[in-house]
Amino acid sequence: MKFLKDIRGIIILLFTAFLFIFPLISNDFYLINILSVSFIYMVYAGSWDILSGFTGKENMGHAAFIAIGGYMLGFISSSFAIKPWLSIPLAAIFSILFGIIIGIPTLRLKGPYFALASLAIASIFEKLTISYSEVTGGEEGIFGIPFLTEGPMGSYYFMLIFAVISIGLLFYLGKSNFGLILKSIKSDEEAAKALGIETTKYKVTAFALSAMFAGMAGTVIGHFYGYIGPDIVYPLSLNTLIMSVVGGIGGIIPAALGGFFISLLTELLRGFGEWNQIIYTVILMLSVLFLPKGIFVSIGNLIKRKKSIKPVIEKSGDKN
């Protein structure tokens, strides 16, 4: 596998292996819970990237996708105790349908108009959530959702496995011909059309995939908290964008790592009290200014560059 021949791939595999053994070497359940949530943020960022990072269609309303899965779970669980093995595929179906229905008209918009349309959709969802409080719970949300498992360890591994599978599938799609076509659309859509590529079909498919993974992640987080509400859904439109851009867009894994890094950073900075927002903002500004391609894209490029330089040095040494 080419992935395993790349040192970056080996580092990712070692990092994943460490996450699998972490609960076995630590009994810090607070940290285990934080890591569990960060796995879902990785999926949020990766699902945003497959649409916006690959096609250039900046989705400013990613929370609408998450709300589909989360509130679908909330509605159903108010009638009967639905388990994750059933709620997750249901969320996938609902989210795909939503992605297609919304994607067909909005993806015709270009430039900032698509971003504004996606932001408007998320805002409409938020207003509807508050207005129809008898169904959605309003600002208080919906409680009583069945938990993922009976304990934090089980939830940790459930969310980790879910994240690994989701990011793995998204990464595979990004590396496939499908991902290459999406990037060609981002580079020059008119040229892609001239080559016979049905750009609308590919953009709608990316939109549906983005919605599907975000919707499933919204369902998983609802099961994890036993609750779904506006406070854990609608701020994610901006937060997911920040995570993806800071990590690096157009490659799935850098964006996902950005989700992991930012979610952990947010939690670690809580100890700084009223200074946490200032420190958080400064870190984001520095990363954007000095690493405009993203933290993990820049790190990956540095590793790749060092690896490519080494054989050149060795060859020049042999000649001497």
TrEMBL record:
<dbReference type="GO" id="GO:0015658">
    <property type="term" value="F:branched-chain amino acid transmembrane transporter activity"/>
</dbReference>
<dbReference type="InterPro" id="IPR001851">
    <property type="entry name" value="ABC_transp_permease"/>
</dbReference>
<feature type="transmembrane region" description="Helical">
    <location>
        <begin position="7"/>
        <end position="25"/>
    </location>
</feature>
<dbReference type="Pfam" id="PF02653">
    <property type="entry name" value="BPD_transp_2"/>
</dbReference>
<keyword id="KW-1003">Cell membrane</keyword>
<feature type="transmembrane region" description="Helical">
    <location>
        <begin position="63"/>
        <end position="82"/>
    </location>
</feature>
<dbReference type="GO" id="GO:0005886">
    <property type="term" value="C:plasma membrane"/>
</dbReference>
<feature type="transmembrane region" description="Helical">
    <location>
        <begin position="153"/>
        <end position="173"/>
    </location>
</feature>
<keyword id="KW-1133">Transmembrane helix</keyword>
<dbReference type="InterPro" id="IPR043428">
    <property type="entry name" value="LivM-like"/>
</dbReference>
<feature type="transmembrane region" description="Helical">
    <location>
        <begin position="206"/>
        <end position="228"/>
    </location>
</feature>
<keyword id="KW-0812">Transmembrane</keyword>
<feature type="transmembrane region" description="Helical">
    <location>
        <begin position="240"/>
        <end position="266"/>
    </location>
</feature>
<protein>
    <submittedName>
        <fullName>Amino acid/amide ABC transporter membrane protein 2 (HAAT family)</fullName>
    </submittedName>
</protein>
<keyword id="KW-0472">Membrane</keyword>
<feature type="transmembrane region" description="Helical">
    <location>
        <begin position="31"/>
        <end position="51"/>
    </location>
</feature>
<feature type="transmembrane region" description="Helical">
    <location>
        <begin position="278"/>
        <end position="303"/>
    </location>
</feature>
<feature type="transmembrane region" description="Helical">
    <location>
        <begin position="114"/>
        <end position="133"/>
    </location>
</feature>
<feature type="transmembrane region" description="Helical">
    <location>
        <begin position="88"/>
        <end position="107"/>
    </location>
</feature>
